[in-house]
Amino acid sequence: MKKIHLGIFDIHTPNQMTQGLWTHPDNQTVRYKELSFWIELAQILERGKFDFMFFADSYGYPKNKRELAFREAVYTPSNDPMLLISALAAATKHLAFVTTASPSYEAPFANARRFSTLDHLTNGRIGWNVVATGGVSGAECFGRGAVLPHNERYDQAEEFMEVSYKLLEGSWEDDAVSADRESRLYADAGKVHIVRHKGNYFNVTASHASEPSIQRTPVLFQAGSSDRGRDFAAKHAEGVFLKAPTLESLKAQVEDIRRRAAAYGRGASEIKIFTGLSAIVGRTRVEAERKRDDYRRHSSREAALLTYENATGIDLAALDPDAPFADMNTEQGRTHTERYTKHSAKPQTARDVMDNFAEKEFRGITLCGTAEDIADRMQYWVEETGVDGFNLERYVLPGTHLDFVDLVVPELQKRGMFRQQYEESTLRERLFGKGATRLADSHPGSGYRRPSHERE
Ligand SMILES: Cc1cc2nc3c(=O)[nH]c(=O)nc-3n(C[C@H](O)[C@H](O)[C@H](O)COP(=O)(O)O)c2cc1C
């Protein structure tokens, strides 16, 4: 049985996943502004030997239903997850952190400096989720009237990666820094190269601000599963977050990404694929089902539909419920339109989509039962689809994480599916084995290392 990797999916807001569940009396997510809340979660996950804590992030909120968005805390308020990470790293030793930064909005120079800083401060426990973001209200936050069309956002993201590799991999030579007090030589300017990038979207003339960190480029993650998204993942990602409506479509997506990676000269094992996992665990099945019913009573259908509209630009309630849900692509994210068209087992009507989405929202595999039940199903999905791990999704916090760590993790360990102890120190080594601290030689980013690439 192959050993799996485990992360959790979170966001620096009071509300995520099942809309409305922030009102549940056991849910402490209204404490999202308190550092102690996040430290407590990180320490629970480290006790459970999790690989990483992943924070999604985006800008803007659903402006066309403002009253509902604020009433139900749909994508608002929203704090910056990156600013949590130094504090969480100080309160843990092994747990790694993956956070989101969007090439659609960030500046590559500042972004590279932030990730290098975090790689230094966490001693290599950092990953970057690269998202070609498509929200309209997000674009307005940055003074951009219109969001770039879908495929052009991926062109922009491609160029963002190129500049990032130039800065992170190519600017400072490995032995540029001596930090020698006696000879009064901190760094040798001759070994710090100026990146001169002039492109369609970005112009940068600078040497990288930070000296080389242990991983240099943070471990790269990606989550868009449209055609362009998967191609981007196959080329750049070392970790991919995939969700699919059926086992068959997840398996097909996993195979597709690995096939595309091979076409870029990368090995199948150079990309770890994670799928979302929502697990309601009880000491008995009855206890788990009782929890599930209780959670359902706190959910909000109108808020759930608003999250769909925000992700896709489609107001499901405004469609004719009996009309077929086909050819529904918009210029916003496509993952959640294609989930009900291309990747669906059978044709859907607007009503089907509405009912399914209100129940599942953005959750991945949804399980409810005892620890043995959950471990059985996880094992089955790994064996059948070839995924390498799971991203645990919250219902109530810290309850969801506590149940998983106390009940499911020991069961996975008993089956030899999950580590008993941490061994490797950096995130990249944890995913790819001891010694793999830097991008693999077959990764396109490694081509920007000196002296193979001229950048002046
Ligand atoms: C696990 C996971 C994490 C995601 N994280 C983010 C995120 O942090 N920010 C965001 O805007 N979208 C996030 N998404 C959504 C997709 O990345 C989003 O749909 C993407 O912008 C659109 O790409 P696509 O058109 O290729 O689907 C996430 C999706 C998944 C499955």
TrEMBL record:
<feature type="binding site">
    <location>
        <position position="57"/>
    </location>
    <ligand>
        <name>FMN</name>
    </ligand>
</feature>
<dbReference type="Pfam" id="PF00296">
    <property type="entry name" value="Bac_luciferase"/>
</dbReference>
<keyword id="KW-0503">Monooxygenase</keyword>
<feature type="region of interest" description="Disordered">
    <location>
        <begin position="434"/>
        <end position="456"/>
    </location>
</feature>
<protein>
    <submittedName>
        <fullName>LLM class flavin-dependent oxidoreductase</fullName>
    </submittedName>
</protein>
<comment type="similarity">
    <text>Belongs to the NtaA/SnaA/DszA monooxygenase family.</text>
</comment>
<dbReference type="InterPro" id="IPR016215">
    <property type="entry name" value="NTA_MOA"/>
</dbReference>
<feature type="domain" description="Luciferase-like">
    <location>
        <begin position="28"/>
        <end position="388"/>
    </location>
</feature>
<dbReference type="GO" id="GO:0016705">
    <property type="term" value="F:oxidoreductase activity, acting on paired donors, with incorporation or reduction of molecular oxygen"/>
</dbReference>
<feature type="binding site">
    <location>
        <position position="150"/>
    </location>
    <ligand>
        <name>FMN</name>
    </ligand>
</feature>
<dbReference type="InterPro" id="IPR036661">
    <property type="entry name" value="Luciferase-like_sf"/>
</dbReference>
<feature type="binding site">
    <location>
        <position position="226"/>
    </location>
    <ligand>
        <name>FMN</name>
    </ligand>
</feature>
<feature type="binding site">
    <location>
        <position position="154"/>
    </location>
    <ligand>
        <name>FMN</name>
    </ligand>
</feature>
<keyword id="KW-0560">Oxidoreductase</keyword>
<keyword id="KW-0288">FMN</keyword>
<keyword id="KW-0285">Flavoprotein</keyword>
<feature type="binding site">
    <location>
        <position position="225"/>
    </location>
    <ligand>
        <name>FMN</name>
    </ligand>
</feature>
<dbReference type="GO" id="GO:0004497">
    <property type="term" value="F:monooxygenase activity"/>
</dbReference>
<dbReference type="InterPro" id="IPR051260">
    <property type="entry name" value="Diverse_substr_monoxygenases"/>
</dbReference>
<dbReference type="InterPro" id="IPR011251">
    <property type="entry name" value="Luciferase-like_dom"/>
</dbReference>
<feature type="binding site">
    <location>
        <position position="100"/>
    </location>
    <ligand>
        <name>FMN</name>
    </ligand>
</feature>
